[in-house]
Amino acid sequence: MTWIAPDVERSEHYPERRNEPEPAMLRDWLDWHRATLLRKCAGLDAAQLATRAVPPSNLSLLGLVRHMSDTERGWVRQAFRGEQVPDLYYRSDAPDTDFEEAGAAGAEEDFDRYRAECRAVDAALAGAELDETFILRERTISVRWMWQHLVEEYARHNGHADLIRQVIDGSAGL
After folding, report:
1. What is the C-alpha separation between 161 and 155, in angstroms, rounded?
2. What tens digit of pLDDT does each residue of 95-144 get?
3. What is the per-residue burial (b if ≥16 Cβ within 10 Å, else e) of 148-159?
């Protein structure tokens, strides 16, 4: 039996909380964009997820899932919290392995790893104050900036996911 990316619930509209404290709104946006990426993948089999549908780009939906796993881990757990956890896919000698090595055979495991990483990042963000700072590459970065950057990273890549999905099966605006 072929593995199919599961469906995911997500509001049809942007997050509803619009006049709440900033951490709640940032959490909503991050969750909404995570769900959007997974919705772009829902219903596709592993081979479709690994398809690089927009040549000459090396992007695939599976590659985007892998990339966002490493992105969240890198910013939140490694840089902000200082956890000594290895990169999931990134290698300095081959920085595009999240995309280049995204193969159908590992799709289900990559999705499980992504969801586990989201849970770990949520735990690492629990109790974080937006004005807290950390140093990365000799720059002082606030949690607020980091969180906004994660939302921006998802927004950009969800645009890529729109194009990839449309080429694969004609679906748009999921």
Report:
1. 10
2. 899 999 999 999 999 999 999 999 999 999 999 999 999 999 999 999 99
3. bebbebbeebbe
Token pair of 134, please? 């950390």
* pLDDT per residue as tens digits for the range 17-39: 677 889 989 999 999 999 999 99
Contact (Cβ atoms closer than 8 angstroms) between residue 73 and residue 85: yes
DSSP 57-118: ----HHHHHHHHHHHHIIIIIIIIS------SS-BTTBTTHHHHT--GGGHHHHHHHHHHHH
Question: Do 114 and 68 form a contact (C-beta atoms < 8 A)?
Answer: yes
Report the length, in residues, of the chain.
174
The domains located in the chain, with CATH, are: 22-169 (1.20.120.450)
CA distances from 3 to 31, 56, 59, 103, 167 (A): 24, 27, 20, 13, 20
Q: Which residues contact 151 (CB under 8 A, 6 or more apart)?
A: 26, 29, 30, 33
Please tell me the distance from the alpha carbon of residue 40 to that of residue 104, in angstroms, as a whole number: 16
DSSP structure string for 38-71:
HHHHTT-BHHHHT---STT----HHHHHHHHHHH
Asked if 33 and 161 count as a contact pair (C-beta separation under 8 A), the reply is no
